[in-house]
C-alpha cells in the first residue's frame, strides 16, 4: 500500500540516523520527499537513495537554527512539487553532555534554536501551504530523556518539553484547518547509538536488555512506519498525541546518572 502516494513531505535532519530512516519509509510509501539537511554530502546522498527507490526527492541545504533557511526549504518544496502535505521536525544540534550547572546560555540557545524555534518557524511557514491543500500532517520529535530527566541533557530536556506544548497547542488550534499535529518519542540505532556502541563495549547489548521487546530499534523498519502512519489518512482522527516508539523503554525508564557523580555534594 502506498499510504503517502501524491503526498509531499519535508523532513528536517534527513541526512542520517532516524531522519534518513523516516525518509526511506516515506519514499517507499509513495511520498515526494524534501531532505532538509545541513550536511550537503549526506543530504545529497539520501536524496539519491530515495530517487533510486523511484521516489521524487529534493535535497535542500538547511540550517534549522536559521528562520530564513527553514522558510526557504518550505518554499523549495512548494516550488518543486507544487505544495506541502507533511512536515516532520526531526533535526536538532546537540551540545556537549555536561552537568546542568555547567550548561551555558549559549548551549541552551543552540538547543532551543534547533528544536523549539526550528519547529515553530517550520510549522508557521508550512501552515498556509497546508491550508491551501485542505489539510496536512505535522510530526514533531519528542524524547524519553525529558520524562526521566536524563542527566547531562538539561538544555535538551527543556527544549523537548516545549515541543510537547507546541504540539498540543497547534493540534488544538489548527484542527479547524484539518491539520493533525502529533509527536513521537523514538529511540533507535541512529548515529549517536552507533558512536556509543563503538566507544563502549557491551553498550548495544545492555541497551537492548532495557527494553521489554529485548532489542534496539531500526530507524527505517521500526521508527519510519509509525511516522508514515501519522502522516497518512490512517491517522486522520488522531491529533495532539505523543507516541513512544522505543520498544517499551518508557515503561521501566532508565538510570542516566553518570558513575563518577557523587550521590551527595556540598
Automatic annotation (TrEMBL):
GO molecular function: oxidoreductase activity, acting on the CH-OH group of donors, NAD or NADP as acceptor
Pfam families membership: adh_short_C2 (PF13561)
Membrane-crossing segments per the record: none
InterPro entries, sorted: NAD(P)-bd_dom_sf (IPR036291), Sc_DH/Rdtase_CS (IPR020904), SDR_fam (IPR002347)
Homology family: Belongs to the short-chain dehydrogenases/reductases (SDR) family.
Name of the protein in question: SDR family oxidoreductase
Provenance organism: Stutzerimonas kunmingensis
Source lineage: Bacteria, Pseudomonadati, Pseudomonadota, Gammaproteobacteria, Pseudomonadales
